[in-house]
C-alpha cells in the first residue's frame, strides 16, 4: 500500500522546475517582444522566433532523451496554465493589442518542446487553442512513434487538415501508431503506408473518407497488427481482400460487418485460417459464429451482442485460445452461458456480462 504522502522524486522536481522556468521565460519574453513590436513589428516577430529557437535548443541539449516525453507534458501543462492566467487578465479596460501580444507569446511557447526527441503526442490532451501550433509543427516531430490526433475536427474540416497531416507523417519514418477519427482519408493512409513502414496500429474510426482504395496501400505495411475501420466507407469486399491478404492483422476492434465478411470469404471457397485475435461485433448471427469458429480459431478476446439469430453460445467452447469474453443482451441459461462457463470457465480470465437476464444465485455460483 503506498504511503499517504508520497515524496516527489528528484526527476519530478526537476521537470516541474523546467516548466516553471519556461513560464518565467515566457513572461519576460511577452514584455520584451511587446516593447519591440511597438516600433518595429517585423523585428519583433523575428526576435520572438529566435528566442523561442534558443529555448528549444536549450531544452533539447540538456534534457535526457528518455525524459523528453515527460518534460514535454510538464512544460505544456505549465503553458496551459499560463494561457488561462493570461485570459483571466483581460477585461473591458485592458488594451486589446497588449492582450493579443501576450496570448501570441503564450501560445508560441508550445514550440519550445517540439523536437526530434519527442516519441508520443496526444492532441486531445491539450486545448484546441494550442492544437493549431501542434499541427503546424508536425513535420518537426521526425522521431515520433505514437501520433494520436484524436477526433481531429470531428469531420468538419477534413479537406483542410489533410495536407497538414500528410506533410507531417511524411517526415515520421519511426511511426508505429497512428490515430485519427472522423478526418482520415485514403490520401492520408497512402502517405502513411509509403513513409511509415514500421506502422503497427491504425485507428481511423468514423472516417467516412476511408474507402476500399486504402486496402492495397495497407497491404504494404507488413508489421500492421491492429486496425480499426469501424464506421468508415470500407466495403465488405474491401474487408475480405484486406483480411485474406494481410495475415498479420490480429486486432480489428469493432467491426459489425465482420460476419458478412466471413460469409463473403466462405463463398469464394477460401480455406485460409486468419490470425485475428481480438474483435467486437453488434451484428452477428448463428451462421456467423460457425464461420468464426472455423476461420478464426485463434480468437482470444471476443465481444458479441446477442440478437434473435443466436440461440446457443456453447459453440464458443471450440475457441481454444479464448481468454476474454464480453456478452451483451442475452439470457444466462437460455443462451447456454452456464454450460459455456462449465466447460471453458478455467481458461477465461475476463468475463463481462451486460444486460444479461437470468442472473440469480445459482448463476453467480457458476461464474465464481
Automatic annotation (TrEMBL):
Top-level taxon in the UniProt lineage: Eukaryota
Statement: the UniProt record of this protein carries the keyword Transmembrane helix: yes
Presence of keyword Membrane: yes
Residues spanning the membrane: 7-29
Alphabetical keyword list: Membrane, Transmembrane, Transmembrane helix
InterPro entries: LRR_dom_sf
Protein name per UniProt: Uncharacterized protein LOC551953 isoform X1
Protein species of origin: Apis mellifera (Honeybee)
Amino acid at each position: 500500500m503506498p504511503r499517504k504522502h508520497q515524496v516527489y522524486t528528484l526527476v519530478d522536481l526537476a521537470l516541474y522546475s523546467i516548466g516553471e522556468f519556461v513560464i518565467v521565460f515566457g513572461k519576460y519574453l511577452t514584455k520584451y517582444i511587446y516593447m519591440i513590436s511597438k516600433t518595429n513589428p517585423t523585428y519583433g516577430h523575428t526576435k520572438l522566433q529566435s528566442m523561442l529557437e534558443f529555448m528549444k535548443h536549450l531544452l533539447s541539449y540538456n534534457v535526457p532523451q528518455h525524459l523528453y516525453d515527460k518534460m514535454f507534458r510538464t512544460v505544456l501543462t505549465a503553458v496551459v496554465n499560463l494561457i488561462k492566467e493570461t485570459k483571466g487578465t483581460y477585461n473591458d479596460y485592458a488594451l486589446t493589442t497588449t492582450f493579443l501580444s501576450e496570448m501570441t507569446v503564450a501560445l508560441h511557447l508550445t514550440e519550445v518542446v517540439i523536437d526530434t526527441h519527442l516519441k508520443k503526442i496526444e492532441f486531445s490532451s491539450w486545448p484546441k487553442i494550442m492544437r493549431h501550433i501542434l499541427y503546424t509543427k508536425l513535420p518537426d516531430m521526425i522521431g515520433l512513434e505514437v501520433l494520436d490526433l484524436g477526433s481531429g475536427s470531428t469531420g468538419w474540416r477534413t479537406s483542410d487538415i489533410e495536407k497538414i497531416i500528410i506533410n507531417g507523417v511524411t517526415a515520421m519514418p519511426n511511426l508505429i501508431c497512428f490515430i485519427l477519427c472522423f478526418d482520415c482519408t485514403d490520401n492520408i493512409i497512402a502517405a502513411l503506408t509509403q513513409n511509415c513502414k514500421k506502422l503497427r496500429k491504425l485507428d481511423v474510426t468514423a472516417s467516412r473518407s476511408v474507402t476500399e482504395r486504402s486496402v492495397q496501400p495497407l497491404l504494404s505495411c507488413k508489421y500492421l497488427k491492429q486496425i480499426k475501420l469501424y464506421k468508415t466507407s470500407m466495403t465488405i469486399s474491401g474487408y475480405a481482400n484486406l483480411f485474406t491478404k494481410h495475415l498479420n492483422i490480429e486486432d480489428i476492434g469493432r467491426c459489425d460487418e465482420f460476419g458478412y465478411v466471413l460469409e463473403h470469404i466462405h463463398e469464394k471457397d477460401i480455406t485460409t485460417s486468419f490470425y485475428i485475435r481480438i474483435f467486437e461485433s453488434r451484428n452477428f448471427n448463428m451462421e456467423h459464429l460457425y464461420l468464426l469458429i472455423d476461420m478464426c480459431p485463434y480468437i482470444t478476446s471476443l465481444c458479441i451482442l446477442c440478437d434473435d439469430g443466436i440461440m446457443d453460445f456453447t459453440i464458443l467452447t471450440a475457441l481454444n485460445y479464448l481468454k476474454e469474453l464480453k456478452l451483451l443482451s442475452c439470457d444466462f441459461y437460455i443462451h447456454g452461458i452456464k454450460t459455456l462457463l462449465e466447460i471453458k470457465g478455467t481458461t477465461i480470465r475476463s468475463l463481462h456480462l451486460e444486460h444479461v437476464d437470468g442472473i440469480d444465485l445459482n448463476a453467480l455460483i457458476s461464474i465464481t
